[in-house]
Amino acid sequence: MNNRDPLYKKIYDDLKYKIESHIYADGQYLPAERLLSTEYQVERLTLRKALKLLQEEGYIQTLPGAGSRVIAPSIPDPPDSSYMIAFVISGDMDRQAQLYHIEICNYLEEYCKADGANVLFAKVCANDDIPPYLRHPDTVRGVIWVANVDSRFLEYSRHHQIPSICLAHNYPHFPRINYADFVSGYQATKHLLQQGCRKIIFLNGIDDSVNRDRLEGYREALASAGISMDCILIADGNWSFSSGSNGIRAVLEKGVEFDGLVASNDMMALGAMQELTRWGIQIPGHVKVIGIDNIDQSRRSTPALSTIAFNQKDIARTAYLFMKERLQGHPIPDEVIIPGKLIIRESSQA
Length: 350
Fold this sequence. Notes:
Layout: H1 7-20, H2 33-40, H3 44-56, E1 60-63, E2 67-70, E3 84-90, H4 95-114, E4 118-124, H5 132-135, E5 142-146, H6 151-159, E6 164-167, E7 176-179, H7 181-194, E8 200-203, H8 209-224, E9 233-235, H9 241-253, E10 260-263, H10 266-278, E11 288-293, H11 296-300, E12 306-309, H12 312-327, E13 335-338, E14 341-343
Helix pairs in contact: 1-3, 2-3, 4-12, 7-8, 9-10
């Protein structure tokens, strides 16, 4: 899947993966179009293009009045496994939050193909058994562990000496590629302060090292501006669009006054902006909003979302080079920090 593919093709690829992985089993019906449109944040016309392609390739059967029924696919033999690298994310992660890492995987695939390698995109949940590509080491030459994958799988890889690196994961025994999360939280908050905001809410993701560092950056920016710690306002989310909406709604229902919002990722920021609009709160007139990540939806939202961007292509290239050097037995740094860049759009302009 190429990052430049149209949106319906990305939906097609995701649904195809879920069918081939038996997340949607043979004979099971896909969720209703209304639910899928909400999940992927697209119009039904876009979704139907993806469903039509799945039907044409024999993955689903559309039954009038009943919906789309899964047909067991005939899965081709995998490519030459001696040149395969696994890119593994947590299946417990919200599906919308997974999109950011999927885009990185798309870039990684481009780099690997140019070098004669293939990429296996996989998900593992905390309670899953050890997957076959780890139990049979000849399947993959190396693994890139992404975000909050349960450390049990990393321990298995370490014990069985499977070459591995981590992306946005602080497991201490593998080389790590992390984001400048403290700086991104600081920079996002400082930007809103410079735009005149003084009562700024921080919208939390899940309690992991990424979110904790971004939250600490927010606190430090307020302290540097001489703003009392009594003014720290925190709303709870879990990285997902709906949690951004729910988190800010809880704040609004309490009657808390604020003029700025820093969300720990873009997806929550977009959910929060939708909820603010429902309450008749103008963005950026009444509340200025900024996220972190620079996902595709951030530039297409209304208003367009300001954000701290981590260049996904650079991240993929670094991961590719890390893995290549590791497979060749060359020394690599214990950790590399990817810097972020402030992108100012309509949602935070004065």
